[in-house]
């Protein structure tokens, strides 16, 4: 007769710890957090490599009003004007090929105190400061003449480009120091602060969104290659992104050529033509820099293996790179028509919409997608269509 041998039960090996997930936070709308967590679990590798070149999924973030509340390009421009750090050009018309003769003349009349190559005294010269602020912020002179003309509105926002071009003459390390001073000042200012720039009142505070700080860190922990694609000046965005552990070589912004380490006003082209990271210009920069697609093809939608998995943005300038994302697309609702038409239409079920995490916008009127949902190259609005050519119907604003 066989005697049964009882083997003592062995303790089970503990399960491997789950990879980091997003923190519970009331700022996340509906099931957005759960959908992002599910995407990371499906596509990520806990503690895995975080480089596209070695197979990591790519996550792309716009910066201004997506990762932070308010605009760091504005914050730096206003700081430079208030502190007299913009250098006088020999010829205002040479600062931007899109600057109108009226704007160049207005700047020449207002900014007479500067010596070419030396800082303008905009900390004391109110007339010059006001003209700069008007051209940059309103795209018109203080006399209400148009400041910019002759650009493709799907590849260029000339005021954003001009803010980067006006940094010319400074070595990049000094610019980084200015950007850091502006960063500290805007983070320290109470929410709602306004600052005097020339004779005008301008927004004077910025905040990192805690939810986006957590999202970026969680994506990195899950093996995503996280990069920034912004229409602010690249040296400025690098300073702000460093606080989130995003290295300089993973920041894409408005880039100008260098003479040694000194910044010039010459824009670096993309896809063989002049553009900045703006609508199709953002797609071009990602395709060219991240995936090595050169020439005019960089403006085209790439094959899925050469596209981001995840994207986050808040404005029409982000619509192309967001539409290219293959897994999820997070639209922060700032009531921008083309973006919200795409997001609410949600033709393939991959869009998620979230209110702004600080001072969310109120509900917008229904978006006129079928007639005014598309930013035309000439700057006007036209009907928005899906990839198959069908018209996107008007959309109600339901997440705010």
From TrEMBL:
It catalyses: O-phospho-D-serine + H2O = D-serine + phosphate; O-phospho-L-serine + H2O = L-serine + phosphate. InterPro entries: HAD-like_SerB, HAD-like_sf, HAD_sf. Pathway: Amino-acid biosynthesis; L-serine biosynthesis; L-serine from 3-phospho-D-glycerate: step 3/3. This is phosphoserine phosphatase. PANTHER family: PHOSPHOSERINE PHOSPHATASE. Its EC number is 3.1.3.3. Belongs to the HAD-like hydrolase superfamily. SerB family. It comes from Mycolicibacterium obuense. One of its GO terms (cellular component) is cytoplasm. It holds the Pfam family HAD. GO terms for biological process: L-serine biosynthetic process. Keywords: Amino-acid biosynthesis, Hydrolase, Lipoprotein, Magnesium, Metal-binding, Serine biosynthesis. The keyword Amino-acid biosynthesis applies. One of its GO terms (molecular function) is L-phosphoserine phosphatase activity. Its cofactor is Mg(2+). It is an enzyme of class 3 (hydrolase).
């Amino acid at each position: 007769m066989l005697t049964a041998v009882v083997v003592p039960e062995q303790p089970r090996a503990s399960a491997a710890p789950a990879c980091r997930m997003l923190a519970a936070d009331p700022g996340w709308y509906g099931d957005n957090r759960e959908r992002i967590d599910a995407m990371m679990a499906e596509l990520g590798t806990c503690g895995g490599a975080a480089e596209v070149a070695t197979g990591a999924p790519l996550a792309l973030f716009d910066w201004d009003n997506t990762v932070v509340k308010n605009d760091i390009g504005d914050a730096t421009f206003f700081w430079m004007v208030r502190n007299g750090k913009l250098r006088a050009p020999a010829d205002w018309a040479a600062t931007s090929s899109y600057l109108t003769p009226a704007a160049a003349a207005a700047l020449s009349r207002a900014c007479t105190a500067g010596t070419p190559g030396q800082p303008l005294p905009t900390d004391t010269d109110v007339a010059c400061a006001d003209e700069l602020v008007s051209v940059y912020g309103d795209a018109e002179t203080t006399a209400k003449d148009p400041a910019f003309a002759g650009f493709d509105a799907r590849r260029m926002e000339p005021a954003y480009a001009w803010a980067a071009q006006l940094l010319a003459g400074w070595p990049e390390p000094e610019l980084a120091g200015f950007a850091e001073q502006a960063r500290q000042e805007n983070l320290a200012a109470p929410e709602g602060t306004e600052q005097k720039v020339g004779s005008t009142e301008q927004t004077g505070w910025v905040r990192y969104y805690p939810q986006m700080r957590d999202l970026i860190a969680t994506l990195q922990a899950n093996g995503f290659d996280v990069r920034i694609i912004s229409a602010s000046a690249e040296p400025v965005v690098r300073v702000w992104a460093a606080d989130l552990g995003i290295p300089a070589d993973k920041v894409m912004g408005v880039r100008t050529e260098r003479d040694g380490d000194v910044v010039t006003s010459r824009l670096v082209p993309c896809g063989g033509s002049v553009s900045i990271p703006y609508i199709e210009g953002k797609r071009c920069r990602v395709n060219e820099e991240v995936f090595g697609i050169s020439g005019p093809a960089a403006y085209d939608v790439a094959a899925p293996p050469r596209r981001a998995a995840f994207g986050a943005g808040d404005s029409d300038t982000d619509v192309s790179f967001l539409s290219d994302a293959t897994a999820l697309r997070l639209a922060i609702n700032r009531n921008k028509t083309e973006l919200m038409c795409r997001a609410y239409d949600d033709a393939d079920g991959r869009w998620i919409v979230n209110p702004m995490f600080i001072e969310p916008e109120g509900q917008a009127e229904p978006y006129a997608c079928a007639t005014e949902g598309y930013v035309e190259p000439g700057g006007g609005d036209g009907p928005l269509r899906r990839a198959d050519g069908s018209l996107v119907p008007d959309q109600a604003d339901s997440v705010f």
